[in-house]
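In this supplementary section we document a worked example of the pipeline. Step one takes a protein sequence of length 584 as its only input; no multiple sequence alignment statistics are reported here. Step two produces a three-dimensional model, which step three serialises into structure tokens for compact storage. The input and output of this example are shown verbatim.
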Amino acid sequence: MRSKRKESEGMTGVGAEDDIPLSERKTVTDFCYLLDKSKQLFNGLRDLPQYGHKQWQSYFGRTFDVYTKLWKFQQQHRQVLDNRYGLKRWQIGEVASKIGQLYYHYYLRTSETSYLNEAFSFYSAIRQRSYYYQVNKEDRCLCPLPGPELVVKKLRYYARYIVVCLLLNKMDLVKVLVKELSEEIEDYTQRFNTEDQLEWNLVLQEVAAFVEADPVIVLNDENAVVITSNRLQEGGVPQLEQGMVVGQLTLSDALVVGNCNNQVKFSELTVDMFRMLQALEREPVNLATQMTKPGTLEPSEKPAKRENPHKYLLYKPTFSQLYSFLSASFKELPANSVLLVYLSATGVFPTGHTDYEGPYDFGGVLTNTNRDVINGETVQKRSQAQKEMHCLHPGDLFPFTRKPLFVIVDSSNSSAYKNFSNLFGQPLVCLLSPTVYPKSMQDQSQRGSLFTLFLYSPLMAFLSVCGLSSMRQGLWEKALEFLHRVYGDIGQMITRSHTIDQAFLQFYGDEFLRLLLIRFVFCSATLRLHKLFRESRSFPESYPQLPKQDTVESSLLQRHILELAAMLEVQNLFYDNTLSLDDY
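The serialised model returned by step three reads:
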């Protein structure tokens, strides 16, 4: 009944309705049905469970199927729909935008970077074909939506397009889109006296800060900024030596948690989360090249091998939310697989001391609560004998050590997690950030943590601690090539050590975890040699501890770091006599 009514409303030339050929009337009817069905399915996406791998797939498949039919239908019958339905270009843009959103959410659900390219292609087509161009000029009498709501759709499209471009490192395009969005917001706020003006201005500020977050830029010979990618690339990880005995575990699931006060963020992604999610992904390929039918919207035709670990991105989760996602990942973890938990969060410190120090006596990292937080400081409203409720304590992770667990903690209280216990004998490693940074480094914390920067882009982090903010492309590529050789040596240090804990070797077989371990060792060795990092609290730690002489204090690795410093002409910032390290 609803479709009939919409068909009647959509028909142009009222009064001459009987003159409309039956075939054209059927075209409008079919279009209205597909449009209604697509909206119904799309709106149902928000009701799907956020976690769990299987429950959502059939629903997504049905939604894609309907949008595929709708998109092809409006292409095949455009003239009839223009004449008889009054189809407007912004309505076509809305369909394309929804398809872009579907691909983006499919990426979030699967962690397949290929789907980002598909989302980009639809968002890009909307802009290139000016589907939303007439939105600001639509006659409110002829438009089914009031003026402001229609313009907001256009603004939201821009915001979503920018997120996809950020994830694809299309920074030049991001800057163009931000400029266009700024002009659209200015026009919107001048035309309509709305209450969301401040919100949209905040969106602009957030994305501008996000784009500027990287502490180092690479310049080519024309002084143009060169965009660098830090996703895993072919040949980017040291290969396993023949006969090397390492574990056969595979990184299957990752929880990426961001709950740092005052860190730059955009669209529920902090800078640290943004960097870590890329460290857990391979460089995207164009999905169309892998399909038999390029350009179709069929998510079932994904690459045969899933290249990336599945990720949950949790921005400021409550304890309940975090534990629910942890439990779901733990439950669905396949055999011989690893769960990675990355925590970038404000530290929560214990309020008192007890005779017995257990896994809930060292504090941990903050989980979100709308109460008890004033200016970023947690208000203590409990007796000293009670523990902080809104905190993920080391003991909270103990149940999940029944399966292989790889933990990264970037926090001012990361050291709480070195008091771990491996109760069940499964592989377990915790990589822990420094808890104190030199004062000159603290000013940069809003733009992301130095520790996570090392795990994401070791060369950028190295330049940052040396106070370098730009570099020529030729020197950057030379330094990257040198670092690749250093990574090979670090890999051999890890695998040839006779005293290293077996957990490190069990995780070393997975390429993502191998690279994280190698970058962690490089970070630790660099900071130990750097003259500004004088306190032991300024060095990363791990559980179990790494054998220092074989890894982070290896004389070979120290020579490599000094060679890199000399290449960049910053050797004066590092100790070149390792004996002087004993003073600190």
